[in-house]
Structure formats: structure tokens, C-alpha cells
Write a structure and sequence with these properties.
Length: 262
Amino acid sequence: MPPRSLSVAAHFGELLQGRLGSDGTVAIVTLPCPALRVTLTARSGGFALHQPDGRAIPLDEARRLFPHSARLTLRAPMPLGGGAGVSTAARVALLRLGGITDPAELAAACHALEGATDPLMFPDPARLLWASRQGRVLAQLPPLPRFDIIGGFFGPPRRTDPADLHFSDISDLVAAWPAACASLPAIAQLASESARRCLALRGPADDPTPELAARLGALGWTMAHTGSARGLIFAAGTVPDAALSDLRAAGFSTITRFGLGG
């Protein structure tokens, strides 16, 4: 057969993540990242899986998700455990290549395997308030205003533990989010507050992202609440020239720039 290939967009941490009150529900508003994609290519041959960028998914699990004869190559140009959704995107890619396309079916399959999943299988994941430990939509959200992100990965990887509920209460931020979607500064303020609470609770203490955001004049900043992705929020077209060199000097890797919303 001729080679077949598809890709699934990753995410870049979260705009919001935390508990909703005392019931233990962990809710997120993900930050989609069209600039970073997990790509799966299938060529003719007996079943094999090549993962040159690191093991995003175990071989036996990949065989169950894609029960066909093919030589598969899975590429993920972002660090595993970085909070970019590599494991979810890899499973979505395998299932889609095998013919499953319904987002709800994909979400259920990923959640059953991972225990905590990102909503990358949906067409507009940033418009979902998502229960990551339950694999379900809690609410539909308004569209985001237009903005640019520049960021990278800082610090060691941290894989998601589905049993980890050590997050701040963000009930107030979630309640304010729908109205804030009409204003980029309001969105940036809420995302920064969610990230600030996470950093205060989970560290690391030496994270340079808040200082970088202030020095570069960003409207706000984001982080992977589990993982190492960090981003600075700017109005579209206003990322300063110094941002790239400043992020590199601060120790960020895989520096990425992308736009969303609007």
C-alpha cells in the first residue's frame, strides 16, 4: 500500500486547570498548539511501531488500538512529559488511522487507557471545559479572542498521574471564564492566575516564566499544570523580537510560537 499519514495537533499546557470545589473534579481549559503535532505514518508490511522521538505509547497497546498489518512510524517533536498531550495525541492518531473518527468514541477509548486525557480529539478543544480525569465535557465555552503565544519547555518532564488531585480550587476562575472570552486581557489575567496558583502549590520555585512575562510586556502567561510547557500571551502581532533570545537565555527548549482564536 502507499504510505498513509495523519497528524494530531498537540496542546501547550492549559489556560486553566484545577479542582472545582471539594468534589475532586479536575477541570481544564486546554491551550491547543497547532505548531506542534504528533504524526503517524503507515507503510506496508507486518505490524511494527517505530518511535524515534521516545516511547509515547507501549507496543502492545498500539497493536490493540491499530489491529492491522502496517509498519508505523510515530513522530512527536516535543518532550514526553512536557504537558503537550503526546500520549493522548498518539492514541488518537492510531485510532483515526484505523478508521475511528467520532470524538466521543475517541475520548472514551483514550480515557480508558490513560485515566487522564486531553480533549485533543475534538475539533475546537479550547471551547470545552473538560474533566480530564473523567474524560467528559463539563460545559461548552465561547470562542477565544485572537492572540499569540511564544514559549517552550522549562525544567524536567513530569508525566501525568491520573490519581494526582493536588491542584488549586479554580471554581472562581471557571465562573469568570465565559464572560472573559470577550477580552484578551481578561483571558490572560485568568490564565496567569491559574498558573500562579499552580506554581505556588506545585513549583518549581525557580520558574522564570512570571518574570519573563513582566519583562517582555506580555499580557499574561500559561503553564502545563503537569509538565514543563510554558507560554507567554501577547496580542496578535506584538511578540517582541527579544522574546526568543530571552527564553533561550532562561533555559527554555523547543521554543515555539503560534496564534489562536479570533
